[in-house]
Amino acid sequence: MKTTVKTLILILMVAVTISSPVAFSCHGKLKWRFMPREEALKYLAMVEAREREGGAAGTLDEPPPNLLDQWFTYYANPVLRVGPAGAFDDKSADCQSIGWYDGQYMMWYIGTSWDFRCEMGVATSPDGLNWTKYEGNPVLRIAEDGAWDDSILICQAVLFDEQEQFYKMWYVGANKKGAFGIGYATSPDGFHWTKYAGNPVMTVTQLWEYSDMEGQTVLKTPEGYKMWYGSYDIETEKCNIGYAWSPDGINWTKYPWNPVFTTNPGHWDGYSVDTPDVQYKDGVYHMWYKGWNDPNGVGWIGHATSTDGISWVRDPKNPLIFTAPTRSEWDSYEVYRPRVSLGPDGQGGKSMLNKMWFSGRNYSLRARVGYAIQFGKTPLEEQAQNRFPHLVQNRLQADPVVLSRRRTNIGYFTPWAGRVTVDILDVAGQKVRTLVDAYALPGIYEVDWDHRANDGRPVPPGVYYVEVRAKTRLLTKEFVIER
User: Fold this and answer.
1) What CATH number should be reported for the domain holding residue 143?
2) Run of H or E residues at 380
3) What pLDDT shows up at residue 38?
């Protein structure tokens, strides 16, 4: 969901404690402060109407929006703007690729001048928000007359090859006759690039690709290089997404049953899908993409997942990033070219902080780059949440699981800050072992019991109880150790 959040600092502070139940200081009548403006106005209208009718406004049982899994756009967007008059990017700056290298973010982007010449620049940032453009821009230029890329140079994908220790780029080029292809270039530092002499390394060969291939993303895997790319029909603006692989990043084989991701008729992405960004994490491919449902309509950003990079399932929360609601804003016409960095947050926090940089364009077709964040859960947090799916603010929970004859894992939840004890009792109610006796913040915890008593002796098989005590509450759960 697109949300302009001017309380971004507050949200970031909340994120570091997101593994525990979050108690907002502003809830009930004030929860509108955490809602998108449109939802806030509706909510406040309901509250005011209830108050006029003499009802209790506080009985409106609508929880504040869940911070997890929503995308929040940065209140000070765009983070990369056009250059001054006469610069190579004085009309637009978009179509970015971003990575974290040598302690800084690097962004390669397409700058467009007022004479509609598109070339590539680079910018650096310590935090992904404040960018400094390289004084030597542009770093990749349109070729001399007669070359395959003497007219257009756009849409790059960049990665740093850890094995070969240099940067690799795949970019879209075209000649003055309108023949498009994907070229390849390398660099020792990300600033000085050498185009491959055998370019282009991919050209249009399949009917579904129409007149152009663009918006590509490339991953290097143990099996080789994998590319997902968009097609583009200049006449109709029909687009779909295909897949190709390569042993060396130069010689590419296209999937014979392309496209692998197509439109979703009748929905927001029912006319075209394009500009994919693919990341691989924990056995799952994640793709963020642009979609639109009308050849002249606005473009939004969605998400899909796959276990093989070929068969994709759309996210039920789509679309994730919307265009601005008013024509005067910088991203009112389309948002596109998502580039995502998956957490963790890198600041020692327990929560995942995913980051997205996306291009936005207004109705005057001036493009810039914006930033958004998404709070997620680590695998451990996901596991804990699945163990206790229904947390309540005034109830202890415990879940003893016997893993073997020598180990039982005990998960427990306390909604209060204070002293917590976790004891093991035998069938007669006698204390056998104290596992926890400590101060704890609200949250989900785990502790293992090695089936030994406080004196170190192994306990016999039989019925046992875990007893969790916090505040003035006591919870007891039975479990059985078998022979």
Assistant:
1) 2.115.10.20
2) helix 379-387
3) 59
